[in-house]
Amino acid sequence: MSNTPMAASPLTRAVLEIDEYVSGLGWDQPARLFALVDTARLRAEQPSLANRLGPGDEQATSALTPIEQDAIPTGKPLDEFLGTIAWPDSVAGCALTVERLMLPPSAEAQVPQELDEAALAAWVAKHPERQEVRMTVAVLRDGARDSALRLRAKDSPTEVLTGSTLVPGLAEALTATFEA
Questions:
Q1: Strand ranges across the sheet with 64-68
Q2: Taking phi first (over 0 means left), then psi (-120 to 50 degrees means alpha), and beta for anything else, what does residue 101 get?
Q3: CA 25: distance to chain centroid?
Q4: Tens digits of per-residue pLDDT, 23-63?
Q5: How far is CA 166 from CA 14, 39, 76, in A?
Q6: Which among 22, 80, 134, 146 is most buried, taking Cβ atoms within 10 Å?
Q7: pLDDT in tens, 129-178
Q8: pTM
Q9: Gap between the Cα atoms of 158 and 61, Å rounded
């Protein structure tokens, strides 16, 4: 968590830690899913992992530890895959990183209305104002959420935008994975 602000909430720190990890893997990565577990609980239940989690100071005892899950199937739409997830009680939250093409708000008026999803994706991919973005979205069981956005054109830890309302649709889809 070298670039993670210490004053940030545990959820924000987890989002930025995941963003930093995935950033180190480079661009053009598949979507990645993470379980978020309470670090203090993890230390108590898995003492053999304690030395890998770092010092057990106050910061670490209120922290969330991201645990990367198995690869997301590539042949299934992401929303359908998320609908199949059920988390055990030991998981406090989850996070997802995904890369997408986005357009600035100024380009919304140019979007043709009659396009299906595949045609719209192709149209966006050819648009001169498109931006490649990596989104890291995390939610907790209690409804808390946070996100990090990193543009490929400004690929720097100091250029990562964070906020709880940046990717509301994806946050809602992740929250649904905790509903019984």
A1: 64-68, 32-38, 93-102, 131-140, 145-151, 161-163
A2: beta
A3: 15
A4: 999 999 999 999 999 988 877 777 666 556 655 554 455 68
A5: 16, 26, 25
A6: 146
A7: 888 999 999 999 999 999 999 999 898 888 999 999 999 999 999 999 99
A8: 0.83
A9: 26
